[in-house]
């Protein structure tokens, strides 16, 4: 794989605890982030707490509650073994086996695997687009200005392509920009414009990348095509929400009407062959 930053998110440098001699802010923020992500899926767990890099009594109680919810020894201390359980959704998303008879099926398998592990951004220091999932998709970058929909798309394609020993960067450059991928598609003549796609939906295939136009050569949101049926596409997309925002907070499986929106399609066929 080319995008391997997620590996750094799976580790802490030292055991962290209240008044610990080896405490450090980054590790504590990681722990607090995962306690909050756990709370989103388990709202009665009592693990939601502030993300401030300070292992105080609130964080200690949240850790105790997490340990109780997972039938662990209730110590209030986070060593690497406890952290492994905290970060298990991220590890499963990036390392669990994916299956498929071809690259397109592998891409959809990888996207589905990420989806079921609930990637979600956090707000840290008043900055949206932050947290371990965002950093993993964005190679360590995070913050309000770091829209992560393309980071998600490339992480999925990279993961699938690597199973076949392929490098996704032969198809497009490593980027976080929809415009860069759209421009690359135009240069390589593998971008189907929305007018053509509307009249010939057979050109759209699962595993291809959709790009929503702002203007002719300006795209503002992206995702992966899962299915094409009639006037609609089913998608996997990051940095979105139930309204289909390009600056939402989650990975979602969405439905879009491509005949009522200006959606261009970037073909991955040359990587498939």
From TrEMBL:
SUPFAM superfamilies: PGBD-like. This is Peptidoglycan-binding protein. It comes from Flavobacterium soyae. InterPro entries: Peptidoglycan-bd-like (IPR002477), PGBD-like_sf (IPR036365), PGBDSf (IPR036366). Residues 26-86 form the Peptidoglycan binding-like domain. The lineage of its organism: Bacteria, Pseudomonadati, Bacteroidota, Flavobacteriia, Flavobacteriales. It holds the Pfam family PG_binding_1. It comes from the Bacteria.
